[in-house]
């Protein structure tokens, strides 16, 4: 509406947007002072980028009628009258005097460097005209044609700008493929950020009345870094000189306060037009782009985490590891099922070995046969079942043993953290030195796991001690980016901790890195950037810098240390824990049993007396044996049989006082087991 009222002064005729060209041609009768051929040249030279044209006519239509019709006859694209379509970029202003035109120009968005303006004055133009005030034209490209002369505005990248008079339409400007800034000094800003920029040494310098730290950039070692190299090529190609100031303040890129206000960092410097260009791994995101113009990116990078390396562990239940839980459960179910079968079969089938009529005996024997340790000979009528059972047992035990040996002699490690989900499950925290991230720039907010990363964030600035403890407790992940398969932590302070970290496989996102620039530079920087990318020069500098500057440490993080290292471990106590536990429980159980039976046998007597009794009888027995053997040949003594005889003798004598036959039999067996090897 506002636009309309301003132009209302200038407008006389209201022509619908795409006027029928043939009708208009019929109306133009007068001969124009610019030949068709020359007009074509003017249009070609003036509108290079414009996709369409916004036309403004002065009030006095009859004065410019011929020129206007000539224009629409020649102009090859679409045009609109009395409206502004910002995307068009082309502006044609036609009038008899400069005063009306000057008013109209104030409405043209001239701060954009891609705006193209053509002014035709149907009359004389004095070189003192207000139209030659270059501040009216901002960063745009402009040509002025009048009966008294032709002027063109100097390049927008050279300050100060001025109009200069040319003598032929061929000399009008707009199309500049090769630009030459003729040594103009650009204000640039960056900071120390390997591998992008290694500038570090500074000196003090007054710029626009403010003291600034300016990078000295006096040696090749300083003027290094991938983006620095790219910047130097741009400076050479566009022929500009530079002063690079060091970024002040606590934030590198700054942060968004609200939709119209940005605080700190290089973005604010460019926004306030204090610098013309800034670089240092700036992300090309909608968030940044809403505030400043950014160049075509030169690379895409992945963001990743370094996570603590898995530590070696010794597990008490290590002997259980060869089989999964499912396998163990299946083995247990099979033992029970088979025992039931044997038990029921023994009850029903009289020819089946009688010992299977006890469920407990069955289960013990089946376990014994499964692990191949206990094999009673009598398997009449159950030969087939037991044979199969034992074969299966053999396979299971062999598999178990070989797997166990391999596992126990190699180091066992915690599980690796390789996905965002595992990251969350491991309760890791992460953080960086800048302000709390603007989340859509950092993580995929639509992913259920990645979106939770924001809740694991803790700021680093101001709580370094806490972060250090977290790192020692292996509760902190280091955030960074991967470039050319090398990981760089986003903050330098984490560099020393890297050796205890490894690279998490899943990336958390990716971004494009580009330069922040003033809009008038955009087109030229983009052109050089595209050229650097297409020719592979950007890639060359990337590889070159990486090759020269990357320390061994940064390459280490992709190596895994939790694999087989070629060294076989000696077995400690813990991994064999379950084995020892079984031994101890077994021993304890049999000892308790033994004492319990001694107690039973002793009745009211004390245990000591029982032992004395046994001792006495042993002596008596020995002397009797000795007497017997005295008569026989000494070599023919069978130790085993003598032992057996002795056992039953002792037991019989001990049990002399007990009454029932069955108890005696039972004790006999137990004593045999316990004392057999005396
Ligand atoms: C304007 O033109 C007059 C002659 O036409 C000339 O003397 C004068 O120097 C010019 N001024 C500028 C600023 O070019
Ligand atoms: C140019 O225009 C600006 C604002 O439009 C004004 O401040 C300045 O005085 C003008 N310069 C001349 C030389 O007229
Ligand atoms: C207009 O075009 C003619 C040739 O058609 C050329 O000789 C003449 O120099 C041109 N005029 C200008 C001002 O360029
Ligand atoms: C760069 O600018 C300087 C200073 O104006 C000029 O002397 C030089 O010729 C220019 N270099 C190129 C390659 O155009
Ligand atoms: C940067 O310069 C400062 C002081 O000039 C120095 O202490 C620091 O070590 C330098 N950093 C690097 C990485 O060279
Ligand atoms: C944005 O924040 C600035 C500074 O806090 C404030 O002055 C401004 O009014 C805010 N603008 C909007 C649209 O909220
Ligand atoms: C430059 O940035 C401004 C402000 O964000 C935006 O309006 C303009 O469209 C951008 N220019 C280009 C060429 O993208």
TrEMBL record:
Residues 1-19 form the signal peptide. Keywords: Cell membrane, Glycoprotein, Ion channel, Ion transport, Ligand-gated ion channel, Membrane, Receptor, Signal, Transmembrane, Transmembrane helix, Transport. It is found in: Cell membrane. Residues 216-310 form the Ionotropic glutamate receptor L-glutamate and glycine-binding domain. Its main location: membrane. InterPro entries: Glu/Gly-bd (IPR019594), Insect_Ionotropic_Sensory_Rcpt (IPR052192). GO terms for cellular component: plasma membrane. It is a multi-pass membrane protein. The chain crosses the membrane at residues 576-596. GO terms for molecular function: ligand-gated monoatomic ion channel activity. This is Glutamate receptor. It comes from Cyphomyrmex costatus.
